[in-house]
Design brief:
alpha+beta
């Protein structure tokens, strides 16, 4: 399968899971989740789903709660996406946004020191 097809599936997976969390759940925890990326395996049997949350909780706790909800989410993914096989979902907390914010703060501190 071509790389473009995998990118399309990853993009569709992010969109579909985001819609499921927003529209199909009543749980406030799940509504606080933002899906940032997906990485599906080449045999389409497994997908890593990267997410962030506005809740101030430990990342392992967030990942555990998302993994507990993965079967519920997977059921809706199977209904909404036209895939031969619905991938098993593994949720991973995306630290890239926090890392980017930390770098941005460091740059601002350097600029402030230079302006003095």
């Amino acid at each position: 399968m071509s790389e473009i097809k995998f990118q399309r599936i990853n993009s569709e997976l992010v969109k579909t899971i985001s819609e499921i969390l927003l529209l199909e759940t009543n749980d406030e925890f799940l509504k606080s989740i933002t899906i940032t990326a997906a990485d599906i395996s080449h045999d389409l049997s497994y997908a890593k789903i990267y997410f962030t949350s506005i809740l101030d909780r430990e990342k392992k706790s967030l990942e555990k709660e998302m993994d507990e909800a993965s079967d519920f989410i997977r059921k809706f993914v199977a209904e909404k996406m036209d895939l031969r096989q619905t991938p098993k979902l593994k949720f991973i907390y995306d630290e890239s946004i926090e890392y980017g914010n930390k770098i941005e703060q460091m740059i601002e501190q350097i600029k402030e020191k230079e302006n003095r």
